[in-house]
């Protein structure tokens, strides 16, 4: 059997591109009936019947990163980047509803007392750092920033361990050539409005779930207080100061690469959670089967870098994506039909074997 990509579909009438920048309640019951009618009208089959299996991974498309005025809005170079990225992504989901087999949505998930939030750190006068403060290893070594022992009992450690961990953590970041520890504004707090998926994206994922009978795979990450967790695959540092395991890497995305014919990746931010997820995935692939990189398609027009006063990550993000491309992953645009993407011929040939 010759496998091919399903034809693109028109955008459903309920979709309003101007609402992508807003927070609102999705009318799930109404969308359910519309999705069923939509699937019948356009002959959209159940996902289980797909011969060519396509996974879409949507990384951290949450209000905190994607809605203007929220804590860590990814403005990018245009000042409105995350909104524009998500307009293109929602368009892409609806147009390719009949081809996308399953959607995974990762959710950056935090509490107040985490290593990258102000309350975790104090200076010699007991002051917390301001958001966007970099905390390099040298500043911890020299005592400029210390662990705030007032939070120790709340996160289940003692004050001595907390200080030793902060020293160990920043040193490991330096040794691994990771980004220096950044103090971020309180964001993606579990249960908050900022933690929720962008409403228009949530609506599109729900519409896909009903139309294709394919449950969205929600993946929680980032709730360990002792480490940053940009990558959906694993945290920045896996061990504590005594060699104790504080976190483990996930095998979920490597499994998806093996089970699906294509894995498409989009989300926020290009310089952080997206880049580090792809980098971890690439490292896993190189340990197993290098050909798997050819299954990865990066929607480069549905992701943008962090650009804030004093920290522009555009260049590191672009360098990372060039590295991924050089390794064999495919950089594509959501506005182009999947059948015209670079790399799609290899996928179709493989699917017939």
In short:
By secondary structure, this protein is of the alpha/beta class. It has 10 helices and 12 strands.
Quaternary assembly: single chain
Distance between the termini: 10 Å
At CATH level 2, the architecture of the largest domain is: 3-Layer(aba) Sandwich
The total tally of domains equals 2
The number of helices is 10
Strand order of the largest sheet: 7-2-1-8-9-12
CATH topology of the largest domain: Rossmann fold
What does the average pLDDT come to?
95
Order of helices and strands: HEHHEEEHEHEHEHEHEEEHEH
Biggest sheet descriptor: 6 strands, parallel
Which regions are unreliable across 5 or more consecutive residues at pLDDT < 50?
none
Shape: globular
CATH class type of the largest domain:
Alpha Beta
Q: What's the name of the CATH homologous superfamily of the largest domain?
A: Isochorismatase-like
Description:
With 353 residues, the chain is of the alpha/beta class. It has two domains: 17-107 and 187-217 and 246-351, Rossmann fold, CATH 3.40.50; 118-182, no CATH class. The chain is 33% helix and 12% strand. It is built from ten helices and twelve strands. Strand 10 and strand 11 (311-312) form a beta hairpin. Helix 1 packs across helix 6 and helix 3 packs parallel to helix 6. The longest helix is centred in the C-terminal third of the chain and has 19 residues, at 270-288. It is globular. The mean pLDDT is 95.
């Amino acid at each position: 059997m010759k496998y091919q990509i399903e034809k693109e579909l028109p955008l459903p009438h309920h979709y309003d591109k101007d609402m992508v920048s807003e927070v609102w309640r999705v009318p799930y019951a109404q969308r359910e009936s519309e999705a069923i009618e939509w699937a019948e009208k356009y002959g959209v089959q159940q996902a289980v019947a797909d011969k060519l299996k396509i996974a879409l991974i949507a990384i951290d498309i949450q209000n905190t990163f994607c809605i203007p005025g929220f804590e860590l809005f990814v403005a990018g170079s245009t000042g409105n980047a995350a909104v524009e990225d998500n307009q293109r992504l929602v368009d892409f989901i609806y147009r390719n509803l009949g081809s996308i087999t399953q959607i995974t949505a990762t959710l950056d998930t935090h509490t107040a007392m985490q290593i990258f939030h102000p309350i975790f750190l104090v200076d010699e006068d007991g002051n917390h750092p301001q958001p966007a403060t970099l905390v390099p290893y040298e500043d911890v070594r020299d005592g400029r920033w210390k662990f705030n022992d007032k939070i120790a009992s709340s996160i289940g450690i003692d004050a001595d361990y907390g200080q030793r961990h902060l020293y160990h953590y920043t040193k490991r970041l330096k040794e691994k050539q990771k980004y220096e520890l950044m103090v971020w504004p309180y964001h993606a707090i579990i249960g908050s409005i900022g933690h929720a998926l962008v409403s228009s994206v949530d609506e599109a994922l729900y519409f896909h779930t009903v139309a294709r009978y394919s449950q969205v795979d929600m993946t929680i990450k980032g709730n360990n207080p002792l480490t940053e967790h940009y990558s959906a695959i694993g945290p920045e540092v896996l061990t504590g100061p005594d060699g104790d395991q504080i976190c483990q890497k996930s095998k979920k995305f490597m499994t998806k690469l093996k089970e699906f014919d294509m894995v498409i990746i989009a989300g926020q931010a290009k310089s952080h959670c997206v880049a580090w997820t792809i980098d971890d995935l690439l490292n896993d692939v190189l340990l197993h089967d290098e050909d798997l990189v050819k299954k990865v398609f990066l929607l480069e027009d549905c992701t943008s870098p962090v650009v804030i006063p004093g920290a522009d990550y555009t260049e590191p993000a672009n360098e990372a994506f060039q590295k991924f491309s050089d390794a064999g992953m495919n950089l594509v645009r959501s506005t182009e039909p999947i059948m015209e993407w670079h790399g799609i011929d290899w996928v179709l040939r493989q699917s017939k074997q």
